[in-house]
């Protein structure tokens, strides 16, 4: 009997309630082109790069041709596209690889999003066009070695004004794209007024250094870095003019939490496809395992989680487009969808038995990567407290 083809995907309905019908023909055509590009260019090389913990830099110029960066940002020659479309782009990227989706999210959502939300018109014109073309790669420096969940009130990186320059000292950790970014949006506490401000640090500025974090077991393609700032002098022209407190930082995070929910949906989509095909092809006890009740139960549970998460992500994108997306909505979407993701990759691994821990079969990599999605942009517990505060009117943060 023939064995299953490793990593083969079933042609199954992953959108049972037809949320893609909310998109117009042009948006669906863009997504079809992206899916074709990813299956031809990224999918054949992704396991090798994951195993070696290396980023496929050679794909960046090819990706630039699709013109997908900063889709939700209003550009001079390209009006802002709907958040719903941006969400489905994240889904498609994550369906193949969540690390590549993370690269896109950090660059397009966090870095470009910070400049769009907090930069002056001059700063936007200076940086956004080359970032859109992927001629300059962006990163986002918020998390610190001693500050993760408490970063809102505990930033140790400082900025001190000296004439027309700011002197930045401190360190950042877990910074995606950090090893090869051309510019990093760095959030630091102004020593004069104790408020958090945003700065664009360019990679060639003296006193700045980036070191790759090694030995990760999740998002291995993502090049997370430890960044250090030793008296880095940043001109006033590089201070984001509309970033004057952590509330401005949170404007960016509110939107990107929604994109993490979309990434979770994308990973669930890819895992469900390979699980369904495996169930059709794997023969045990003289018949395909897809004919057994326990296997069908695992697939149905996967589809239920996927469908519920897609519905939440899609509605969240509509609220973003309407300008009424609230913190608790982003927090609930991020925590719910990544928790469901964690369940789904476990069920997919269970369905495949021993083959579920081999990279070739398409589950082992997302099984590990799901742990990172579950934790970044606010742990489940922190997001739960944001939701709980909105329910009770009481803050349980300490």
Automatic annotation (TrEMBL):
Q: Does the keyword Ribonucleoprotein apply?
A: no
Q: Identify which cofactors the protein needs according to its UniProt entry.
A: FAD
Q: Name one GO molecular function term.
A: acyl-CoA dehydrogenase activity
Locate the Acyl-CoA oxidase/dehydrogenase middle domain: which residues? Answer: 139-232
- PROSITE patterns with a match to the protein in the record: ACYL_COA_DH_1 (PS00072), ACYL_COA_DH_2 (PS00073)
One Pfam family name is Acyl-CoA_dh_1
Q: Which UniProt keywords apply?
A: FAD, Flavoprotein, Oxidoreductase
Q: Name one GO biological process term.
A: fatty acid beta-oxidation
- Answer yes or no on keyword Flavoprotein: yes
Q: Which residues form the Acyl-CoA dehydrogenase/oxidase C-terminal domain?
A: 250-391
Annotated Acyl-CoA dehydrogenase/oxidase N-terminal domain ranges read: 25-133
InterPro entries found in the cross-reference section:
ACX4-like, Acyl-CoA_DH_CS, Acyl-CoA_Oxase/DH_mid-dom, Acyl-CoA_Oxase/DH_mid-dom_sf, AcylCo_DH-like_C, AcylCo_DH/oxidase_C, AcylCoA_DH/ox_N, AcylCoA_DH/ox_N_sf
Annotated family = Belongs to the acyl-CoA dehydrogenase family.
Against PANTHER family, the record matches this protein to: ACYL-COA DEHYDROGENASE, ACYL-COENZYME A OXIDASE
Write the protein's name: Glutaryl-CoA dehydrogenase
Per the UniProt entry, what species is this protein from, by scientific name?
Answer: Jatrophihabitans endophyticus
């Amino acid at each position: 009997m023939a064995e299953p083809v490793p990593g083969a995907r079933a042609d199954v309905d992953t959108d049972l309630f037809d949320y893609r019908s909310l998109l117009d023909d042009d948006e669906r055509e863009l997504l079809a082109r992206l899916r074709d590009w990813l299956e031809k260019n990224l999918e054949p090389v992704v396991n090798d790069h994951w195993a070696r913990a290396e980023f496929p830099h050679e794909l960046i110029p090819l990706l630039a041709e699709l013109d997908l960066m900063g889709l939700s940002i209003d550009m001079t020659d390209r009006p802002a596209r709907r958040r719903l479309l941006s969400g489905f782009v994240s889904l498609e990227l994550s369906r193949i690889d969540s690390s590549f989706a993370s690269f896109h999210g950090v660059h397009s959502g966090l870095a470009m999003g910070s400049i769009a939300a907090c930069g002056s018109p001059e700063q936007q014109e200076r940086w956004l066009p080359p970032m859109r073309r992927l001629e300059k790669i962006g990163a986002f420096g918020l998390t610190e070695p001693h500050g993760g969940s408490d970063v809102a009130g505990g930033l140790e990186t400082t900025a001190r004004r000296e004439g027309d320059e700011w002197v930045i000292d401190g360190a950042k950790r877990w910074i995606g794209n950090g090893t090869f970014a051309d510019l990093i949006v760095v959030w630091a506490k102004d020593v004069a007024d104790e408020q958090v401000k945003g700065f664009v640090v360019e990679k060639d500025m003296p006193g700045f250094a980036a070191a790759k974090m090694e030995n990760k077991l999740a998002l291995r393609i993502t090049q997370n870095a430890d960044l250090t700032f030793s008296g880095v002098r940043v001109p006033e022209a590089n201070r984001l003019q509309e970033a004057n407190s952590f509330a401005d930082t949170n404007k960016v995070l509110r939107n990107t939490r929604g994109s993490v929910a979309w990434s979770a949906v994308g990973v669930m989509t890819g895992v469900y496809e390979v699980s369904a095909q495996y169930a059709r092809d794997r023969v045990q006890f003289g018949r395909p395992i897809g004919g057994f009740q326990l296997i069908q139960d695992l697939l149905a549970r996967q589809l239920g989680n996927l469908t519920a998460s897609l519905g939440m992500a899609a509605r969240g994108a509509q609220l973003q487009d309407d300008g009424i997306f609230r913190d608790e909505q982003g927090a609930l979407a991020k925590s719910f969808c990544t928790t469901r993701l964690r369940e789904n990759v476990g069920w997919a691994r269970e369905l495949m038995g021993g083959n579920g821990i081999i990279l070739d079969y398409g589950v082992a990599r997302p099984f590990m990567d799901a742990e990172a999605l579950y934790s970044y942009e606010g742990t489940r517990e922190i997001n739960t407290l944001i939701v709980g505060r909105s329910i009770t009117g009481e803050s349980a943060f300490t």
